[in-house]
Write a structure and sequence with these properties.
The chain is an all-alpha fold. 66% of the residues lie in helices and 0% in strands. The chain has a domain of 28 residues. 0% of the residues are buried. Keywords: Membrane, Transmembrane, Transmembrane helix.
């Protein structure tokens, strides 16, 4: 290895010996993988808790239809309004 400092050379020898000690047939995520997984799990838990809180605030009751109170048939008012809004073929 040309022109390598003593500290870099020492670091390389330590990394090489560490790499030889690791079992090549066994792959594990290690501590960093666990930390990332735990952080993602906590984030999902927090988002689900927040979503549940927001969904509990929503009022799902629907206001009564004013047309139903007047006694008009539902189809007649909609069909008449629909024919007026259609564009003509002549432009």
């Amino acid at each position: 290895m040309p022109d390598m400092s003593a500290s870099a050379s020492l670091a390389m020898t330590h990394l090489v010996t560490f790499a030889q000690e690791v079992d090549e047939d066994k792959v594990t995520p290690g501590v960093l993988g666990f930390i990332v997984f735990a952080a993602m799990a906590l984030a999902v838990w927090a988002l689900m808790k927040s979503m549940s809180r927001h969904m509990n605030k929503v009022d799902f009751t629907q206001a009564p239809d004013p047309k139903a109170e007047q006694g008009e048939p539902e189809g007649s008012a909609e069909s008449a309004a629909g024919t007026d809004k259609k564009p003509s073929a002549n432009g």
